[in-house]
TrEMBL record:
Record field: transmembrane: 7-28, 48-67, 79-96, 108-129, 141-158, 164-181
Protein name per Swiss-Prot or TrEMBL: Ferric oxidoreductase domain-containing protein
Keywords of this entry: Membrane, Transmembrane, Transmembrane helix
Amino acid sequence: MRYSKLSLLEMLHIGAIIFLNLYVYTLIPPLSENMSGLGNKFQHPLYLFIWSLSIATFFLIHTKELMQSYNYPSKWGKIFLYISTILMVVCILLPYKPFQFPLLSKWHVRLAMFATVIYILVFLHFLCYQTLHTFNINISYLKFYFVFIFLELLLYILNGGVSTLLETSFALIMSLFLLYLQHK
């Protein structure tokens, strides 16, 4: 198996994502707060916006490139990928201040969860289609994805909700997995 090289732009983008996801641990507690708290309670809204935008664009660009390189035929899958990306960015624009803006705060949480679930399902459909229908992707990658999502759900349940660790681990592992699949 021959691996293709990463472009300079890809290296900069993944480097920024790694930095943003690890540096956040110096700003907020990883298990008792979530990224929304970073923007509101800890007064780093620009950091939160840059983090969200970098993750959303990375997921969109690299998932779309994977879908094109593997000739993924689902038009709906591609449409839902765009919807998920838009929702990821829009939810950050809504303030999470439950006491000042209770309705907007609820929609912030709903959109963030909905965007993540849509993305997980779109990518799962892509992997299942490529693994079980066209046999373009090895089944071990599908197994890895199932274990990864299971561990993320377990972290969600054990922590009693969304935490910084959950959000950053999902963003980091998914970004690296996308790059690996794209350049394997």
